[in-house]
Amino acid sequence: MRLGVLDVGSNTIHLLVVDAHPGARPLPAATHKSVLRLMRYILEDGSISEEGETAILEAIRAAVAVGEAEGIDELLPFATSAIREAANGPAILRRIRDETGVELQVLSGEDEARLTFLAVRRWSGWSSGSLLLLDIGGGSLEVAAGADEYPDTAVSLPLGAGRSTIGFLHLDPPTEDQLTALRDYARATLAEAVGRFSGRGREHVIGTSKTIRSLARLAGSTASGPGGTERSLLRRSELADWVPRLAQLPADARTALPGITADRTFQIVAGGVVLREAMRALDVAELEVCPWALREGIILRYLDHLD
């Protein structure tokens, strides 16, 4: 069957079309992305502005049209932190349903962590042992750990790359004082959460999300994987080297670097700061990058229920 996964996130509204059936690996068939950076539309009262609502509706209509053209059998639409936390989130959801026919499932932060963990486990396999997952989205950072298909411990923290950029890095390029303020906030926020992950044994550390993949392309390395494949790795020491250099460049100049795309260039510095602090707090020297994340987790859960 052909499935469409519609991800209404904090940075993009992204439709992924896959061909899939229970027991098989989902194969990408088409993709459509609208870059909105919804954090720009958050008003002082915590609501999304009328301009932001209009942008969301236009992007969803465009994604639905692509899905229809691709002949999808089922649309799996969901929303994450931007709409989940907006003061007018319920009203926006009703408007989306009434004007587009799309009924978004709003995921909690723990839902995001659990479903991303499922995708990472399926990609990595049981031989990877106990996993520690780091996932940086636009609005939140998810951390999860466990030895099974779903994590034993999962937290969602307000440390997304887009949220952190809007909240702290107000100038382009950011000042050292702004970077220090973000580092201090990230450390304090992580300090409250890492106690839940104490006493862990040996773990295979995985990072996922476009932000982490971009940083790995820029600053990471590769190693041999099973079956002649390559594994993408990112070390904390490499982040410590590259993030200050990224921070010295204006956003429009960063796209000349490997892995830094136009849709991530404004928030890649904040993402790098948060990832480095998360790795430091959890005593992680190196992580492996997984190409599967939340959208694939949504697909896998749906297929499991069919089976």
Number of strands: 12
- Class based on secondary structure composition and strand pairing: alpha/beta
What distance lies between the first and last C-alpha atoms, to the nearest angstrom?
13 Å
Low-confidence stretches: none
Q: What is the residue-averaged pLDDT?
A: 95
Radius of gyration from CA coordinates: 19 Å
The residue fraction in helices comes out at 40-55%
- The string of secondary-structure elements, in order, is EEEHEHHEHEEEHHEHEEHHHEH
Main sheet overview: 7 strands, mixed
| Outline | globular
Strand content: 15-25%
Strand order of the biggest β-sheet: 8-7-6-9-12-11-10
Q: Helix tally?
A: 11
Short description:
The chain has 307 residues and is α/β, with parallel strands linked by helices. It has helices spanning 50-69, 81-85, 89-100, 109-124, 161-168, 176-193, 210-219, 236-247, 251-254, 268-281, 294-306; strands spanning 2-8, 12-19, 27-35, 74-79, 105-106, 131-136, 141-146, 153-157, 204-208, 221-224, 230-235, 286-289.
What does this structure look like?
- There is one protein chain.
- The protein is α/β, with parallel strands linked by helices.
- The protein contains 11 helices and 12 strands.
- The protein has helices spanning 50-69, 81-85, 89-100, 109-124, 161-168, 176-193, 210-219, 236-247, 251-254, 268-281, 294-306, and strands at 2-8, 12-19, 27-35, 74-79, 105-106, 131-136, 141-146, 153-157, 204-208, 221-224, 230-235, 286-289.
- The strands form 2 sheets. A 7-stranded mixed β-sheet has the order 8-7-6-9-12-11-10, sandwiched between helices. It has a 5-stranded mixed β-sheet with strand order 3-2-1-4-5, with helices on both faces.
- Helix 5 (161-168) crosses helix 10 and helix 8 (236-247) packs antiparallel against helix 10.
- The protein is globular.
- The mean pLDDT is 95.
